[in-house]
Amino acid sequence: MTNKLASGTRSEDRPAEQVAPLPPASGAPGLRRALTLTHVVLYGLGVTIGAGIYVLVAAAAARAGMHAPIAFAAAGLLMGFTGLSLAELGVRMPVLSMGAIAGRGIVESVSFAGLMTLVELGGLAMVIVAGFLFAPDIVSRVPEMLPLTTDPGVWSGIFTASLLAVFAFIGFEGIVNIAEEVKDPSRTLPRAIIYTLAISTVLYVLVMWVALIAVGPTELAASNAPIALVFERLTGASRAP
Question: Following CA atoms 227, 228, 234, 240 in sequence, which dihedral angle do they give, to the nearest 10 degrees?
């Protein structure tokens, strides 16, 4: 009788120690959210600004002439819409393709990358500063930049130059790779992308304008090293052999 009763005992009537606990839910551990807005913007500038601008200056001058800075501004505005879409995507589905540095020390890694970014931006900053120091008419000639005309040839040149200028912004989408390690990503990520594009656009427009004032669109378009030519023309320094 005792055995019969024991065999018919329900599981909920057994002592608690005899009921095996459910295994914990499995899942990948989350990453530490340690990156600030400054970290993300520096990272964004680092992956956005590269060798492209050094080549595209000549190509844009060949197509849009003195209106080439407008082409870079238009390209930056266009990429802004893409950037907002990527920000939304990055918050919802963060990618971590940088696994080698994401495991640990992300702040140190991005900080070091940010330092390298400042060094990289130094070349463009030198051109801009030299322009304002050695080209006295760089501000007074700004109206020449504006395409105040209905000439279809002018607008066609600006349009084609804008399409080329888009390539100078390729890379900023890499910001979403670190989305899972950003503090308050829903707020920080969109701001970082917009700041990255805005700073890049301003730098590109200024470099393009300085180049046009210092050298002129015709000579600039024919140069194989336009930025070096601009710096040489502004400062008198000779280019490295």
Answer: 170
C-beta atoms surrounding 162 within 10 Å:
22
26 Cβ neighbours under 8 A, 6+ residues apart: none
State the distance between the two ends of the chain, measured CA to CA, in whole angstroms. Answer: 103
Q: What is residue 35's three-state secondary structure?
A: strand
Instruction: Burial-class residue 87 by CB neighbours within 10 Å (0-12, 13-18, 19+).
Output: buried
- Confirm if 58 and 226 have CB atoms less than 8 A apart: yes
Tokens of 134: 């050695």
Task: Collect all residues with Cβ–Cβ distance below 8 Å to 135 and sequence separation of at least 6.
Answer: 210, 213, 214, 234
Is 144 in a helix, a strand, or coil? helix
pLDDT in tens, 221-230: 999 889 889 9
Cβ contact 18:187 at 8 Å: no
- Spell out the domain ranges in the chain: 33-235
Q: 54 or 30: which carries more pLDDT confidence?
A: 54
DSSP for 52-101, please give it: HHHHHHHHHHHHHGGGHHHHHHHHHHHHHHHHHHHHHHHHHS-----HHH
> Domain spanning 33-235: which CATH class is it, in words?
mainly alpha
pLDDT for position 139:
93
Q: What is the pLDDT of residue 76?
A: 93
Residue partners of 239: CB distance under 8 A and separation at least 6: 225, 228, 229, 232
Q: Tell me how long the chain is.
A: 241
Provide the CB-side half-sphere exposure for 48 (13 A, CA). Answer: 31
SS3 at position 13:
helix
